[in-house]
Design a protein that fits this description.
By secondary structure, this protein is an alpha/beta fold. It has one domain (3-7, 20-146, 187-320): Spore Coat Polysaccharide Biosynthesis Protein SpsA, Chain A (Alpha-Beta Complex). Helices cover 28% and strands 23% of the residues. The chain has 11 helices and 16 strands. The strands form 4 sheets. It has a 9-stranded mixed sheet with strand order 1-4-3-2-5-10-7-11-16, sandwiched between helices. It has a 3-stranded mixed sheet with strand order 6-15-12. Helix 3 (92-105) packs across helix 7. It is globular. The chain starts with a strand and ends with a strand. Residues 8-17 and 305-314 have low confidence and may be disordered.
């Protein structure tokens, strides 16, 4: 995977920053449209203490590529992937995430957490609060997971059939195949906050190879590959069943569910939770909802005990091996 590192000089906005946070975050952002919205996202999550890797999808139009590239050149600690193509529903999404982790692990910056975002996400809290949360829970990874057989049996066709990426789309014809011996399939979402140790395991352990080999021919593996690996391997770490994202899932034909595009009507939902990020947003649908969130950036997260009492979030924690 090739990438270019942009300007290494401090950005003007970083010259009067407060004391650097205790946690260094490696952000991996995948973008393909809405360059103005991407700029707003990046301004909200940028801190010179962190490191950023941006994947601009090869399918993005040339204007979008140029606008994002020009904008990012003003910041330090930025790396841009060159011409990575991602197919919705295909293993290329997982491969992009793993390639991003691998690239970031090779950098001199000793970051603590890997956080993936799309260009249509937005933070609900400041980098200071996000860093404080991760420092308080250092060593804990966050990823939604559930036993796929018990909780979402209707999705088992994704892993029990053979799928392929052909000419930038998923194959229409499939055939049945036997699932992996001795492995319990798990499913969740593609969004995560993983420790460096967790990323090193995913990118370097020999155990992961068999999962890569099988899941490269499954459907929507970005929602199940990482969960299945971590819950069926020797990885030692704490995994919380929560991705810390505010998302409203709504029906959408054959896909079953898709994330609702937020509007001003959803501000109450976005403010009341204890999430760190939200998706998804689209300026073409509502260009004002993000502005309504900024006043709450510095509002502290509520304590977990308080949230558990109210039943808003019950964090299921698994100690992996």
């Amino acid at each position: 995977m090739s990438a270019v590192q942009l300007n290494t000089q401090p950005s003007p906005s970083s010259l009067h920053e407060e004391q650097p946070p205790k946690i260094k975050i490696a952000y991996f952002i995948m973008a393909h449209r809405l360059s103005k919205q991407f700029r707003r996202l990046f301004n909200a999550i940028y801190h010179p203490n962190n490191i950023y890797l941006v994947n601009i999808d090869k399918k993005a139009d040339q204007i979008t590529k140029e606008q994002i590239g020009s904008f990012l050149s003003k910041f330090s600690g930025i790396h841009v992937l060159e011409n990575q193509t991602v197919v919705w529903g295909g293993y290329s999404m997982v491969q992009a995430e793993l390639s991003g982790m691998r690239y970031l692990l090779k950098q001199e910056t000793q970051w603590d957490y890997f956080i993936n975002l799309s260009g249509q996400d937005y933070p609900l809290k400041s980098q200071k609060i996000i860093g404080e949360f991760l420092a308080e829970h250092k060593g804990t990874s966050y990823l939604k997971y559930a036993n796929q057989i018990l909780t979402r049996p209707e999705t088992l066709n994704r892993i029990e059939n053979h799928f392929s990426e052909i000419d930038g789309a998923m194959s229409v014809t499939t055939h049945k195949r036997k699932y992996m011996d001795g492995v319990v399939p798990y499913i969740g979402g593609q969004w995560m906050m993983l420790t460096r140790d967790c990323c090193e395991f995913l990118c370097g352990s020999e155990e992961v190879k068999k999962f890569k080999e099988y899941y490269k021919n499954t459907l929507i593996p970005d929602e199940s590959f990482f969960q299945t690996v971590l819950m069926n391997s020797s990885f030692k770490g704490t995994l919380v069943n929560d991705d810390m994202r505010a998302i409203i899932w709504i029906p959408d034909g054959d896909i079953k569910l898709r994330p609702k595009t937020f509007t001003n009507e959803d501000l109450g939902f976005l403010k009341k939770g204890n999430n760190l990020f939200a998706r998804k947003f689209d300026d073409n649908v509502d260009a004002n909802v993000i502005g309504g969130l900024k006043a709450y950036f510095d509002t502290p997260l509520r304590k977990e005990k308080e949230l558990n009492t109210e039943g808003n979030r019950l964090m299921n924690t698994t100690q992996c091996n």
